[in-house]
Amino acid sequence: MNLYLQDSKLTNLGKIMEIHGPKLLGTSYKDPIASFNLFREYTVRHPEVYWSIILKELSVTFHEPPKCILDTTDKSRPGGTWLPGSVLNIAECCLLPSIHPRKEDDSCAIVWRDEGDDDDSDVNRITLKQLREQVILVANALDRTFTKGDAIAIDMPMTVNAVIIYLAIILAGCVVVSIADSFAAKEIATRLRVSKAKAIFTQDFIVRGGRKFPLYSRVVEASPHKVIVLPVSGRNVGVQLREQDISWKDFLAYDNQHQRPNHFTPAYLPVDSMINILFSSGTTGEPKAIPWTQLSPIRSTAEGWAHINVGVGDVYCWPTNLGWVMGPILLFSCFLTGATLALYHGSPLGRGFGKFVQDAGVTVLGTVPSLVKTWKNTDCIKGLDWTKIKSFASTGETSNVDDDLWLSSKSYYKPIIECCGGTELASSYIQASPFQPQAFGAFSTASMTTGLVILDEHGVPYPDDKACVGEVGLFPLYLGATDRLLNADHNDVYFKGMPTFKGMRLRRHGDILKRTVGGYIVVQGRADDTMNLGGIKTSSVEIERVCDRADESILETAAVSVAPPDGGPELLVIFVVLKKGFNQQPEKLKTIFSKAIQTNLNPLFKVSNVKIIPEFPRTASNKLLRRVLRDQIQHELSVRSRM
Q1: Would you say 596 and 158 are in contact if contact means Cβ atoms under 8 Å apart?
Q2: Do the beta carbons of residue 261 and residue 136 sit within 8 Å?
Q3: Can you tell me the distance from the alpha carbon of 397 to that of 511, in angstroms, rounded to the nearest whole number?
Q4: In sequence order, which ranges of 477-585 are alpha helices (DSSP H)?
Q5: I need a labelling partner for 180 at 20 to 30 A (CA). Which of 10, 403, 467, 533 fits?
Q6: Is residue 220 classed as helix, strand or coil in its secondary structure?
Q7: Helices (DSSP H) in 304-444: which residue ranges?
Q8: Where do the TM regions start and end (predicted)?
Q9: Which residues contact residue 26 at a Cβ distance below 8 angstroms, ignoring those fewer than 6 apart?
Q10: Domain spans, the chain
Q11: What pLDDT shows up at residue 323?
């Protein structure tokens, strides 16, 4: 038997395809590789069948079981009603031992290391039982201080304590408000106001690259009702607290004397109860407050289980933060599959992080492309052994093919699973799949149960086998996707103005997708990042991909188009960040870029201007703010036109 085929049958998804494929697909089923597309298409048509199978594979235990998997009778809910009648506590599911997947009290739940610790010392470990006891301790403290349903924020790095607090808030029946530790006071205040948070957990300082940065003082500027403050090191906080605030040590003190400190009765709630409020990037006004329900972790975990093959025995690491969607996804993807969560308390940019990946025995490593670029350019992981890694994963930005090849080479050219989704979907809607041939920087399939079409400029879907470029439209039946927003009209944001397809109102996501002749999918940017050059529509990402490779001096580029103040066709402007040690003239780069774009994209495209800057403006989640660059150029043109 082909070794690749044999390995495919041993994966999470391969095993259930071997068991259920012949029954569901009949004689059409051959094996996990040959029949992957057929099986995935079946899950789109019959999502209730797929989810009935997957729920048995994850560590999900219902206090009251669902009446059915999917109810579509309520026409006011285009996404359907999933697992109606079911009651559970998803945090409890994370903390209890299970037979399948195999989780035991002495299983390693989290492995971690603090930045600055001796890199040759052993990594720290906590078992499932120890984690459960710590979560219960915090849940008891929460229960005596707050009321079920209260929103409680977390603004701190993704440490072991942050994970404990996150699970405890949900176990106690409260709602986590996710705030990234990089936010300014104004952004923190907006999120506290929108979520109506009653309190916030934070640290006195953040340590990055050997330097201490104040965090508590920044949080206090946002005027929260109450702050629970953890020390970045030691037992005592290193700042003076406001009268209404309390240290972590004092917050827990009561429960250390509690008669039953290791006992807590979870808050069992309907499956569509809110557990976490996350936020969009907020690059165009107030960020959308996106509620996660108990369905959301089920969806996000299932994607990692099926496409990245995360499970018992894996050590899963992804530098992220609970303020961004990848933080909760990582957490649940470990604890609901029996994998070990790997956390590095510090910056992922240097050798210390790379050494931790080696010493922790990480088997699945998640990245963002800019992080890979830094590792490659600084050569900080040279000499380290990353060969235990069985697969990489990447999300957040468009990947660079050369950087991906370099990363893959660090573990005998293991695959890089590209993932693209959204906070409001609790998952990726397109993926790379190990069951299909892969191309670096591209996606090979929609995720399991996900139906989608690519729309032309009139909102008409292209045929599924046609190479094309257009805005994506998602089928609305999508377990885990939002059905509400806290500060915007959900229907207006995701459904209003979208075309119908086969009787379904399509769901808006906003990505521009390119489907190649070979069937691969490339994200061309957001619908609002498209440009019209001489009557031809193209995307910023497509132009940037060509310009990034045009000259050895280029670290990265950003393409924007602006309308001239006196009218006329849009002008193409390329912003450039040069590699360290390189000098280059804008006019020379303009010639180089124009030639590359005309050769690789369209002979009619012309670069109007090139601007070299030290770095690009980005959101706290590292998304490029082309809007800021576009506004800068528009302002310069307006000033010139008045001179």
Answers
A1: no
A2: yes
A3: 12
A4: 490-494, 540-548
A5: 403
A6: helix
A7: 326-335, 351-360, 369-378, 401-409
A8: 163-185, 322-344
A9: none
A10: 127-274, 528-639
A11: 94
For 283, 336, 471, 487, 503, the CA distances from 506, given in Å and listed in that order, are: 25, 30, 11, 22, 9
Q: How far apart are CA 237 and CA 203, in angstroms?
A: 8
> Domain 528-639 classified CATH 3.30.300.30?
yes
**Residue whose structure tokens are 């990489």:** 392
**d(Cα 35, Cα 42) in Å, to the nearest integer?**
11
Cα–Cα dist 153/155, whole Å: 7
Distances (CA, A) of 94 to 300, 309, 428, 608, 623: 14, 18, 21, 55, 31
pLDDT tens, position by position, 299-340 = 999 999 999 999 999 999 999 999 999 999 999 999 999 999
- Taking the chain (643 residues) in consecutive chunks of 10 residues, what is each chunk's mean pLDDT? 84 98 98 98 98 97 98 93 98 95 95 87 96 97 96 98 98 97 89 97 91 95 97 94 97 70 92 96 72 98 98 97 96 98 95 97 94 93 97 88 94 95 96 94 96 94 94 97 96 95 95 92 80 75 90 94 76 94 94 92 87 87 81 85 72
User: Which residues are registered as beta bridge partners of 514?
Assistant: 469, 522
